[in-house]
Amino acid sequence: MKEEFEAKSVMEMSGGAILERVNVEMARVVENILDPNAKADAKRKITVTLELTPSADRKNITVKTTAKSTLVPTDAVTTSLFIAGKPLSGEMAIYEAVPQVPGQIGMDGAEQSKPKILKIPYAG
Known about the structure:
Elements: H1 17-34, E1 45-54, E2 61-70, E3 81-86, E4 91-96, E5 117-121
Antiparallel strand pairs: 1-2, 3-4, 4-5
């Protein structure tokens, strides 16, 4: 009686762990694609590495598999700062720019909050 072999993918070996690792990285990539702070149309990549080490008698092969994803970093966050103060008195402050005058009511009805202030000692 002739034995028939069903063709399988190496991705199904190791009890499905190789395929599971690829799926975990795919989930990370999709999460990164959906992140509104990351560039939408930038390329992402999943790399699967199969490292095969044969035994000295060439009868066994150890397969070490790693899967890793290359994601897109989140977009940079920027702000504008203004330096103000009295250098001779030692009073210096850095103010974050706000789009309107603090206390002013915008077209949407929201009141402009005060800018964030960082007080620093003047070292001049």
